Each structure stands twice: as structure tokens, then as C-alpha cells.
Amino acid sequence: MHAWLCTEPTGVEQLAWTELPTPTPGAGEVLVEIRAASLNFPDLLMVQNKYQIKPPLPFVPGAEWAGVVQAVGEGVEGLRPGQSVACLSGTGGFATHACAPAARCMPLPEGFPHVDAAAFIMTYATSHHALIDRGALEAGETVLILGAAGGVGTAAIQIAKAAGARVIAAASSREKCELCLRLGADAVIDYSQEDLRGALKALTEGKGPDVVYDPVGGDLAEPAFRSIAWRGRYLVVGFAAGPIPSLPLNLPLLKGASLVGVFWGEFAKREPKANAAMMAQLARWYGEGKVKPAIDRTMPMSQLPAAFERMGSRAVMGKLVLVN
Hints:
Elements: E1 2-6, E2 15-19, E3 29-38, H1 41-47, E4 64-72, E5 84-88, E6 97-101, E7 105-107, H2 114-118, H3 121-134, E8 142-145, H4 151-162, E9 166-171, H5 174-182, E10 187-190, H6 196-203, E11 211-214, H7 221-226, E12 233-236, H8 250-255, E13 258-261, H9 264-270, H10 272-287, E14 295-300, H11 304-312, E15 319-323
């Protein structure tokens, strides 16, 4: 097998395409031939030593991938060789093969392509947990999605629409806003050209959004929170802009609003039954055509450094997927 090996987490330039022994699955594990692996922002942070999870060195990055089971370890039930799966293992995906815990592999129904499957679990689970569980989004409410043309943002648009909400998508260019409209957003804000607070006031007739979905952080957080509706819920999803914002705590008080943390990975560990039910609903929605990953492009696995460069420049709209 071959894999992109990180021996020093000092940047993408330290990754090397390396021949390694093909592993044998241990108890509770499966060996998968990887067909597709998607890029997520934590993958980039991990090879830069900027992510909260720091794998022991050396490691193969790539949190999310899909492929075909080649072998199963002792005690594995419900998975068999030849079966297609999607897996969120945290590492290991930027390779030709990987071993992963069977519990982290989702069997794929017929008609679920590997490219879509590799771009599905992390973004859709994060966005569903954020909007439906943590945000208690209801039909008829208005949700503002920041960074709406990114991986989690595009998933959030579709999930919010499936829940019957009105979606205001905010992104950093006209091209990205056009993508959001194609995905079902009811209105868009190009915050590179428009004042966020002024645009929200006009679009909501002064009421503000009921829910703010924020995977961006940075300078957008405070104006977005100042615009939130009475009893609004502000979902802290991530900090793709880099800086972690500091919000004045009088803002939640004045709006009777909630500042809500979203940590899907921990939710999945602590509440596995609820997480499994959520994933089953998302799989049904995919089959019904309610959700479908927005694929920016596919690139050969050999072009991982170029793919990371595209992600780092904020050029990716939706998900970028590497294929073997």
C-alpha cells in the first residue's frame, strides 16, 4: 500500500507519498481499499500541529473516506469483504488502504457513490447535530449560515431546508453566493461586499435570524450575534477564519439568546444511540434526494499537496475529494 505519511507536523510540505506494509485488521477492525477521501479543515490543521487532536507520529492524515472492505478482523459483525463503506476514522484516509474500527464504518446502500460517501459523514453529521439537536431549529424559523459555501455550510443549507427553515446564506464572494442559491438558500449575503448587520436587518425586517450557524468565527461573530433575534441560538461550530472571537457577555443577556457549543465528535462518543439514529435519518434523506454533498472537484490522491493548497486559499466550494 501507499500513503501520505506525516513525520513532522510542520506543514503540508513535510508529507511524503510512502510505501508501507498493508496492515492486517485486528479484533473489531476492517481493512478497506480506499476509493475516495475528502478534505476537511481539521486535516489541514492536523498536519500543521494546530488541531486539538494530535496523533502520535508518524501518522497518515485523512479523517474521512470511503471504499470497499477487503478483510474483517475477529468479532466483526455486519460487515463483509466486498461491501462498500464510508468511514470517519480521524486519520488514515489519504492512502490506498486503511484499517479502521468497524464501529466507525457506515455500510453504504446501493446507489451511494464513494465520492459522495467520502464527503458525507463529518459535514452532514456536524450540521444536523448543530441545527436540529443543539439549535432546536423549527419549521418556519430563519437561520443564518456563515461560511455557507464551505463543506459544513453547504450541508447546513440542505439540512435547514429539509427541516422547513428559511435560509440566509452568507459567503465571501458572488460566485460562492450563487452556489448557495443553487443549493436552496432563500437569500444570500456577500459579506466581502455587503455590511452583514445591515443586510440581515433588511432581510428579516429588523427581527434578526432565529439561529446563527457559525463555522467561521473571526470578525463575523460579533456583528452576527448583535443581529440575532430574541431567544435566538448562536451555534459555535468552528473557527475557519483563524482567530477565536471574544463576545461581550451582555449580548446574550440583552437578546435573551443562547450561545451554544457544537462538538459532534464528542456527542457521537457520549450518545451513540442518538448519533446512530441521526445518521440513519441522514442516509434516508440522501436516498430521498433531500441532501447531497456539493463536490467542488475530484483530484487524484497523488495531488494531495495541491488539494491542500486549494483548501488553504479558501477556494474550495463544498467538498474536495481525492480518488484512487
